[in-house]
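Run folding on both entries below.
>entry_1
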Amino acid sequence: MFPRDSKLHHARKQRSICPSLASDLSYIVITIELWKEVKDNLQKLRSIHLDNLEALTTIAPHPLEISL
């Protein structure tokens, strides 16, 4: 199916030798990729929150300015 020297052939051969290790490693890779995506999304949310906070503070007058 795959050429004998291809990486896919090598990976498939390793999976057949030690399927539990291959599945553990795939879970680790998936977890790392998902964590990177979560981290990126959290950074985006933080920047949106900071932008909104800055917009609110520039729009709303300071409470002391209202009382004067």
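>entry_2
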Amino acid sequence: MEPPPSWWVLTYLNHTRSWNELYVQAWTNFPDHLSMAYAYHKPRRQGIWRVIRGKEVFCGYKYIWDTPIIVHQNRPGDTYDHIWLLQRLESDRHIWYYLFAPLGPYGLEIQGPLMHVPPPEVHLWTSRMYVGTKEKGIFYTDSFTGPG
């Protein structure tokens, strides 16, 4: 597999989380075969510095996990659009992930931004009670603590 002619750029990124699945869709400006690294804890980040014309220049961050879970995109080959469907996830845990291509220009790994996906929200059953009193008229409450 040949590296892309340039660094790819994410032109679109979206994720949808359900109780035990995560669906991620991304588009890039160059066709490439991307992978996803994810874990249930936030990775360490290390600064990337390069010496350009005798001056140290900050070039971004590299994300480092001890034991990430690596998943390849669902579509084979080099594509512009990339899809991942992660199943059997723990529903109460946060997920941190980033997209990457192991082989980029100059033999370097290309990493996308670090994304955080919180667990799905639990919508609890609520009701509203309307109460009429002689002193204060009609009011409503969500806490059922009474008037005033």
